[in-house]
Amino acid sequence: MCQFLRYWRSLGGGERLPDRAALDLRQLTSILSWMFILEMGADGALRYRLAGSSLEEAVGRGMSGKTYADIFADTEQAALMEELYAVALVQSCGILRTGAFSLAANAMADLEVLVLPFAESRAMGGVILVGVVRPFNYENHGFIDRWGGFEHEIKSLMVVPSPRVLTPRHLSPRVLSALDSMAFEMRALDTDTMLEIDRMGAQGRYVDIPSLSLEGMTVPQEQALN
After folding, report:
1. Domain holding 76: CATH number?
2. What are 30-78's pLDDT values in tens digits?
3. Which of 83, 97, 124, 128 could form a disulfide with 40 if both were Cys (CB 3.0 to 4.6 A apart)?
4. Structural domain contains residue 65
5. Measured at the alpha carbon of residue 61, what is the angle toward residues 96 and 63, in degrees to the nearest 5?
6. Is 161 within a domain?
7. In this structure, is residue 116 part of a structural domain?
8. Burial letters 108-130, b for 16+ CB under 10 A, else e
9. CB 30 within 8 A of CB 6
10. 85-138 pLDDT, tens digit each
11. Domain total for the chain?
């Protein structure tokens, strides 16, 4: 995940919205099977343009061309993430979510997903989200269909200034109520600190992902970014 974040930053991410044409997937071959691209269709639905082979093997179906709701939105927290991703896409802002999920009953696994925005003129709204999932163990060599059996648990949610920022004022009352019921604060990823920890190879010394309070942003900053 740090590899993808560092690459995005090298394309100008964080200071401006990188162009999709600049994304060279050959530079990301070691994580490519865990990557995906989400775009918004004319009907407003989030759709997978591409999905890596590890992700498709884990769920037991091809994901390309399918909507997010086709695969994940049969639970409350999955539907919540769908709306958050849609708002992030509209706001051209990245999101890092952590939590857990299951592909089978009584088998929860840790989950981290990072999505970052890229400009693409032919996409609806001119923006796509390119994401990566932290690798997890799965055994589905028989490509057994596991759709409809997912459970989600969101533990933390951080926005990635891109440079625009998604704040609670952009979210619907339904989402705000759901986040409040989960009793955690939406924060901003401290990208510089995260990448410095990665550079030093010191991840093992940190329990939590470094983050900043969204409330710490001044009004002029938020107005400038949004």
Report:
1. 3.30.450.20
2. 999 999 999 998 888 899 999 999 998 888 888 999 988 888 766 777 7
3. 124
4. yes
5. 45
6. yes
7. yes
8. eeebbbbbbbbbbeebbeebbbb
9. no
10. 999 999 999 999 998 887 765 567 788 999 999 999 989 889 999 999 999 887
11. 1
Place of tokens 């050959």: 26
Residues 6 or more apart from 18 whose CB is under 8 A from it?
8, 11, 12, 118, 119
Place of tokens 């991410």: 13
Residue 51 β-bridge partners: 36
d(CA 120, CA 40): 12
Q: Which domain holds residue 65?
A: 2-186
Look up the pTM and report it: 0.89
**Which residues are CB-contacts of 169 (< 8 A; sequence separation ≥ 6)?**
none
Residue 17 structure tokens: 């919205």
- 138-194: per-residue pLDDT in tens? 776 666 666 655 677 888 999 999 999 999 889 999 888 988 888 878 999 999 999
Measured at the CA of 132, the angle between CA 216 and CA 17, to 5 degrees, comes to 55
74-78: which pairs have CB atoms within 8 A and are 24 or more residues apart? 74/148, 74/150, 75/150, 75/151, 75/152, 76/178, 77/152, 77/153, 77/154, 77/178, 78/150, 78/152
Which residue is it, tokens 């949004």? 226
